């Protein structure tokens, strides 16, 4: 599957392969039709809803983690009192 010679370097470095491809690619004169814009909007909205649902489901764990990280110890008293 690997190419002999210089092709091995490109197969092992996908970032290099993508960079070379972008450097030599011709521009595509295309447009974004309303269907594509609608699809992108729906994808963005679905991502926000999934994030909200995840926070709702795991809220108890998130709350416990924040309390452990920022909670003051009970034996410690305020300095001004």
Describe the structure.
Helices cover 65% and strands 0% of the residues. The protein has 81 residues and is mainly α. The chain is flat and about 60 Å long.
**Helix-strand string:** HHHH
User: What is the rounded distance between the termini?
Assistant: 73 Å
**Uncertain stretches of 5 or more adjacent residues:** none
Strand content: under 5%
Present the secondary structure layout.
Elements: H1 7-12, H2 14-24, H3 34-57, H4 59-70
Entry keywords:
mainly alpha, 4 helices, 65% helix
Task: Give a short synopsis of this structure.
This protein is an all-alpha fold.
